[in-house]
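Per your request, structure below.
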């Protein structure tokens, strides 16, 4: 099963421990993860289910290409990393 992981800076705002979840796409895996953690879902995804502007997802170290549909494939051994983008000046 793919593993979903969140950076520590996200976990300061909402509890989201690392979990193995079933799924063949990023959407499948995140839906499974968020089924048990709705608060984390609201922090990571917008009301349409897309990644929020300040979030970035990686699968096995490669940035997810489909931020809206989250259709990027994952394999049973994949790691999905959710990272909060930082900006400033």
């Amino acid at each position: 099963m793919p593993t979903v992981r969140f950076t520590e800076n996200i976990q300061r705002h909402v509890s989201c421990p690392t979990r193995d979840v079933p799924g063949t796409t990023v959407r499948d895996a995140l839906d499974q993860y968020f089924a048990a953690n709705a608060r984390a879902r609201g922090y990571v995804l917008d009301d349409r289910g897309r990644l929020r502007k300040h979030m970035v997802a990686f699968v096995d170290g490669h940035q997810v290409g489909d931020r809206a549909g989250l259709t990027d494939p994952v394999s049973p051994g994949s790691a999905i990393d959710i990272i909060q983008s930082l900006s400033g000046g």
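The domain at 3-84 is CATH 3.10.20.30 (Ubiquitin-like (UB roll)).

Regards,
D.
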